[in-house]
């Protein structure tokens, strides 16, 4: 019998045996599901002695359900004494705490074995008492040996935390029970780390610089994607125009012979950022000097580097010239909404009465897309009718959990709502940098970040197109004015307020859902869905969240917008669906591997693509 089949049989048998018995894990899983739905996880506060070295990156997280096995043993130095001595763990590892997805085993060694065939043996380095009474201690372990290739093949450190149960029996250790075993139920969470071999190159370095520029300029998340996309389409065409691994995006000119790709990336990023954020020129100048100094062969007079820089600047200027006419700076009439039921209007502020401020970013609804044929290409159907059962269910849900002082929203959900409100393209680009495969080439990274940011901007354009097409009201007015909606299943509450003030634009669809849905879908399709990463927001630094899958982030952001009291569930679900459509469309039609494209995706179409966007530019002049 093959090893994988043996493993699956063992896994199935052990899973059945452990889950059929009562253990602290079931209560733990049910408690977590009451606090938050979905496959999300926040790492607990860890004692300093249990932290792995600074160069370690969290790569996988698992819940364990099993037993700690103890054996009655005679004391070798005092034969009159007997005690329960730890023998081994025996547990099933689950990806989620609902115990629906067993992914591995934990047994004597201590050994962790994944269902993909990889396994490792660890050794305890540090212990810390569990904050839970009657629970085994928290541990920091180091991997000592590995077998197979897979999830555990490069793990270097392991943390055991959030333990429950598993402590040795306190009675029964005597001569009459020598060698008797006790199997004590326990649960724990294991965090697996590997050494972070930084995949940093000129693309990721300047992506970080672009992120910092966006945050320094305090750009609203609604417009960040456009700026990031300008930078990264220029970077992509600059390096790809030299190495020719993928189809071009916009610039199809011929690069000078011998141009250095790294220098082209650096200069393209520098030129776009300096033009977009002239107030930060000194920062970009310093980064330029540092980046050029790191390029192999740079002696200050390298012809190859000079050609690369000239080419990068040429590409950047072409992208900048095109996007200067994309409609972003066009002044459009302000939209104030109206007083009819279902129609958006601005909520009151301390200085502005209800309905007196215009909706923001109307230009984003008509902005020239980076990939879509028009802003309305993926426009969804209208929101539910005010008299529908779905509308009533959505309003009543957000009324209960999205209220400023909601009695049903947990503190954790409140933190998550605030974390996602502080998250935009800048923060999600940081997520992408943390998961870049170390084997990626320079042009591979350029393509990844170009795809991500093209999708990011077009998703927001699609979101605003829908907002300005349907002009649907936010929960604030839906709840305050529920007595006007003609729906007997809703009731007015003139004192209701959301967790925070809604963004000053229409409700349908959710921009966070369409943007994050698209962004995370690209990462999942390009890198595989199962990646561990942590969401961190500069504007809400006190709270972070760790995910095991890209799709989990999309699922969570939808909930977070409802918890905040600013979106309905239908708007979030539709937003995600639109985002996935955009992501797939861009991946299937742009930046294609030259050796894998079919006839309709050849250079001919991408040559026409330049004129295609030029047509849109003229339409918005």
CATH topology of the largest domain: Vanadium-containing Chloroperoxidase, domain 2
Number of helices: 16
CA-CA gap between termini: 70 Å
How much strand content do the residues show? 15-25%
Give a quick account of the main beta sheet: strands, pairing sense, barrel closure.
8 strands, antiparallel, barrel
Q: Poorly predicted ranges (pLDDT <50, ≥5 residues)? A: 19-40, 597-621
Structural class: alpha+beta
Secondary-structure element string: HHEEEEEEEEEHHHHHHHHHHHEEHHH
Residue-averaged pLDDT: 88
Please state the second-level CATH architecture of the largest domain.
Answer: Orthogonal Bundle
What this model shows, in words?
- With 621 residues, this protein is α+β, with helices and mostly antiparallel strands.
- It folds into 3 domains: 3-195, no CATH class; 202-323, Phosphatidic acid phosphatase type 2/haloperoxidase (Vanadium-containing Chloroperoxidase, domain 1); 394-591, Vanadium-containing Chloroperoxidase, domain 2 (Orthogonal Bundle), CATH 1.10.606.
- It has 16 helices and 11 strands.
- It has helices at residues 3-20, 24-35, 202-216, 221-243, 261-276, 281-294, 303-323, 389-401, 411-421, 425-434, 442-470, 475-480, 511-527, 550-563, 569-589, 603-619; strands at 40-41, 56-74, 82-94, 102-107, 111-114, 119-128, 138-147, 157-165, 181-195, 530-535, 545-549.
- The strands form 2 sheets. The protein has an 8-stranded antiparallel beta barrel with strand order 2-3-4-5-6-7-8-9.
- A hairpin with a 7-residue loop joins strand 2 and strand 3 (82-94).
- Helix 3 (202-216) packs parallel to helix 5 (261-276) and helix 11 (442-470) crosses helix 15.
- The longest helix has 29 residues, at 442-470.
- The radius of gyration is 28 Å and the shape is flat.
- The N and C termini lie far apart (70 Å).
- Residues 19-40 and 597-621 have low confidence and may be disordered.
């Amino acid at each position: 019998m093959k090893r994988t089949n043996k493993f699956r049989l063992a896994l199935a048998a052990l899973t059945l045996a452990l889950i059929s018995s009562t253990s602290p894990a079931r209560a733990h899983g049910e408690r977590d599901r009451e606090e938050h739905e979905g496959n999300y996880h926040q790492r607990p506060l860890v004692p300093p002695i249990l932290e792995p070295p600074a160069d370690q990156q969290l790569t996988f997280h698992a819940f364990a359900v099993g037993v700690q096995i103890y054996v009655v043993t005679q004391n070798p130095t005092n034969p009159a004494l007997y005690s329960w001595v730890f023998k081994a763990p025996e547990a099933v590892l689950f990806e989620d705490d609902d115990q629906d997805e067993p992914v591995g085993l934990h047994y004597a060694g201590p050994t962790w074995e994944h269902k993909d065939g990889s396994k490792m043996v660890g050794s305890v380095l540090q212990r810390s008492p569990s904050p839970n009474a009657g629970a085994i201690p928290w541990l920091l372990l180091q991997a000592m040996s590995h077998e197979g290739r897979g999830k555990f093949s490069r793990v270097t450190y392991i943390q055991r935390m959030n333990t429950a149960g598993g402590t040795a029996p306190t009675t029964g250790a005597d001569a009459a029970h020598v060698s008797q075993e006790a199997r004590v139920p326990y649960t724990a969470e294991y965090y697996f780390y590997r050494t972070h071999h930084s995949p940093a190159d000129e693309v990721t370095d300047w992506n970080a610089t672009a992120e910092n520029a966006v945050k320094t300029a305090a750009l609203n998340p609604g417009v960040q994607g456009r700026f990031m996309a300008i930078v990264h389409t220029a970077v992509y065409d600059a390096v790809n125009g030299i190495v020719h691994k993928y189809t071009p995006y916009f610039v199809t000119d011929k690069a000078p012979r011998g141009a250095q790709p790294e220098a082209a990336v650096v200069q393209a990023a520098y030129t776009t950022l300096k033009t977009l954020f002239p107030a930060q020129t000194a920062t970009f100048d310093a980064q330029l000097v540092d980046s050029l100094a790191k390029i192999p062969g740079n002696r200050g007079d390298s012809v190859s580097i000079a050609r690369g820089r000239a080419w990068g600047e040429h590409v950047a200027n072409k992208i900048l010239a095109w996007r200067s006419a994309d409609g972003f700076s066009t002044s459009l009439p302000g939209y104030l909404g109206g007083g009819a039921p279902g129609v958006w209007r601005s909520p009151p502020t301390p200085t502005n009465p209800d309905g007196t401020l215009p909706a923001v970013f109307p230009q984003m609804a008509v902005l020239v897309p980076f990939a879509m044929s028009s802003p309305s290409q993926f426009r969804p159907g209208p929101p539910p009718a005010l008299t529908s059962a779905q509308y009533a269910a959505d309003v009543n849900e957000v009324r209960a959990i999205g209220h400023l002082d909601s009695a049903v929203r947990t503190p954790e959900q409140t933190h998550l709502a605030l974390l996602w409100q502080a998250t935009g393209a800048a923060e999600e680009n940081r997520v992408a940098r943390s998961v870049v495969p170390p084997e990626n080439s320079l042009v591979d990274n350029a393509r990844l970040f170009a795809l991500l940011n093209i999708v990011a901007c077009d998703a927001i354009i699609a979101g605003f197109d829908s907002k300005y097409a349907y002009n649907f009201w936010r929960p604030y007015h839906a709840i305050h004015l529920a007595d006007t909606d003609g729906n007997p299943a809703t009731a007015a509450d003139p004192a209701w307020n959301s967790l925070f003030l809604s963004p000053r634009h229409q409700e349908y669809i959710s921009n966070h859902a369409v943007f994050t849905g698209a962004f995370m879908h690209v990462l999942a399709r390009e890198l595989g869905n199962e990646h561990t990463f942590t969401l961190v927001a500069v504007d809400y630094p006190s709270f972070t969240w760790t995910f095991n899958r890209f799709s989990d982030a999309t699922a969570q952001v939808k909930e977070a917008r409802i918890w905040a009291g600013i979106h309905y569930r239908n708007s979030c679900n539709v937003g995600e669906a639109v985002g996935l459509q955009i992501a797939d469309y861009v991946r299937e039609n742009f930046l294609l591997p030259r050796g894998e494209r079919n006839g309709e995706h050849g250079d001919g179409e991408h040559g026409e693509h330049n004129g295609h966007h030029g047509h849109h530019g003229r339409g918005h002049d």
